[in-house]
Amino acid sequence: MNEKYVRPGRVLFAFKHLPLEQIHALARPLAEFVECARAQDQFWPLHDYIFAHQRSLSLDMVSAWASTNGLGARRSRECTDQTSSPTVTADAAEAAELGVRGTPTFFIGTLNADKTVTVTARLDGAVSLEDLEKPVGALLK
């Protein structure tokens, strides 16, 4: 999806946080950690690491990885200590407003001149690449 649509600029992919703390106690602290990493251009590498290791995560484990993969030890400690990210709070509020209760949730639509999106499809939960490509492909025709 990324190589076929996002990199060539045919599709804009936006990530929003919805830390489901009732399912994963570290969801909010990890979302805040990733937002802290964004300032160092390390959002996606850290995001991908967290999702690849989500069954065995600890803040110490994520901090150790981050400190050796782009953030540095001092910056990693600062991210661990971060207690509130306005971005995470705003994303969670937006999800509630849109009726999103689980992750992932995909909204597919067209980007308007005023930067709003006209949604043409919504996919809830883990979906196959084929299911994701159907509404995207329909819009690109």
Structure description:
This protein is mainly alpha-helical. 50% of the residues lie in helices and 11% in strands. It is built from seven helices and two strands; from the N terminus they run ααααααββα. The protein has helices at 2-6, 27-38, 43-52, 59-68, 73-81, 86-97, 129-140; strands at residues 105-111, 117-124. It has a two-stranded antiparallel sheet. The protein is globular, with a radius of gyration of 16 Å. The relative contact order is 0.13. The mean pLDDT is 89.
Properties at a glance:
mainly alpha, two-stranded antiparallel ribbon, 11% strand, 141 residues
Provide the fold topology.
Elements (H helix, E strand, L loop, with lengths): L1 H5 L20 H12 L4 H10 L6 H10 L4 H9 L4 H12 L7 E7 L5 E8 L4 H12 L1
Antiparallel strand pairs: 1-2
Helix pairs in contact: 2-3, 2-5, 4-5
Give the gist of this structure.
By secondary structure, the protein is mainly α. The chain has helices at 2-6, 27-38, 43-52, 59-68, 73-81, 86-97, 129-140; strands at residues 105-111, 117-124. Strands 1-2 form a two-stranded antiparallel ribbon.
